[in-house]
Hints:
about 270 residues, alpha/beta, BirA Bifunctional Protein, domain 2, six-stranded mixed β-sheet, three-stranded mixed β-sheet
Amino acid sequence: MESSVDVSVLAPxxxxxxxxxxxxxxxxxxxxxxxLAENITAQDDPILRFYGWEPHCLSLGKHQDAxxxxxxxxxxxxxxxxxxxxxxxxxxxxxxxxxxxxVPAGQERHHQIYRLFHHILAAALRKLNYEVQxxxxxxxxxxxxxxxxxxxxxxxxxxxxxxxxxxxVVGSAQKLFRNSLLQxxxxxxxxxxxxxxxxxSVTENEKKGLANALHQSALGLKEINSRKMxxxxxxxxxxxxxxxxxxxxxYLKNTAYDELLEAEKMSNQFII
Length: 272
């Protein structure tokens, strides 16, 4: 067990439901996260869901300005565009593993949960021979006021980050619901997210400057260690690390038919 981890913050009863890796389109992915967070009760176990995006998708934070987006290029390339229920900046969901964590009554512990998940994730990555580090610092200012500079999620810092040689490997965001906490994020399997700039309506010189910044601030797992890592293998390693960290009962339970049906009903609200 990781001695410095108090997993009761996340799973006070020692149980965790894991929804195995599945592909959905962007709107359904966001609707599923939203529906699960809206409907979880205090008696339910926390949920850890793993997923991918088919087709690839650009997501914006809840309050992020969509005026910067080149919609014509998105349509031309077959890329979906959605708005996340959480905050944060833009992410191009392509070569990654995405996770969501839904914790009942987690609002008051949201900073602890954010740090705890990153602690467990960093430990899982290190076991897979990715020598990442956990960085924590106070973040000042409002990223929304910085416009294009912080358009991309992987070009700005949060208070707890997983990094390799000071480059961000994971981007996460949270939303507090009335009775729960939703945290979801992207773990880059490859690339530096510079592809996101293709869909930003700015000059080529501005894109070059932003691309240089992303090269300096973000990194995928393939760039750390050239061996192939799949979303399925990484999700299994994270689940195993939760067990090593003291979650006594971890069980697999796929997205139920009624959960998916209800999510599909509300999915249009996440399309921009």
